Amino acid sequence: EFPAELYPAIIERLRGTPARAGELAGSVESSLLTRAPDKGWSIQRHIGHLADLEDLFIARLDAYERGETVVPAADMANARTVEADHDARTRDEVLDRLRAMRNATIARLEAYPRDFFARSAWHERLGIQKRVVDTCVFFADHDDHHLALAQMVKREVQRVR
Of 22, 51, 78, 156, which sees the most CB atoms within 10 A? Predict the structure, then answer.
């Protein structure tokens, strides 16, 4: 229900994700980055997951550009993240991939005219119309969610060493 004109603030939230992920990953011993709690993801997998979803973000931007009436659906099973084995990569590989992918998305968002952010399409799973700005908020909230979970994992793995 907020104005689409607030999109610059949302872009800034999105721009900050790689730096926040880097700060988090840099505050933990490398050996703890890939340690996961029971039935949970490691810090590194949470960060890698954010990069995995960047293709969905781009696919949705493509749909808005083409004027499609429905945005592409997400894979709720997170198959890409499950198969990616982010824990087999180095910290820098995971962070560099997130940074590169997000920077490309930010450049694209900044190139759109102001009125683009008010375009909308139907989101099947949620059963609502979503504007471009709403999609941006969703991805920023999703980033926050996974970084918060990664912080919780950090506390847990540091306690259990």
Answer: 51
Amino acid 36 reads A
Long-range contacts of 92-96 (CB under 8 A, 24+ apart): 94/25, 94/44, 94/47, 94/48, 94/51, 95/18, 95/21, 95/22, 95/25, 95/47
Of all helices (H) and strands (E), which one includes residue 122?
A: strand 120-123
Section 93-97 average pLDDT: 98
Q: Which secondary structure element, helix H or strand E, spans residue 106, and what is its range?
A: helix 91-111
CA 78 to CA 158: how far, in whole Å? 26
pLDDT of residue 27: 96
Contacts of 155 by beta carbon, 8 Å cutoff, 6+ apart: none
Tell me how far apart the alpha carbons of residues 9 and 12 are, in angstroms, rounded to a whole number: 5
Residue 131: CB atoms within 10 Å:
18
Helices (H) and strands (E) in the chain, counts: 7, 2
pLDDT value for 1: 73
Closest CA to 139 of 23, 54, 75: 54
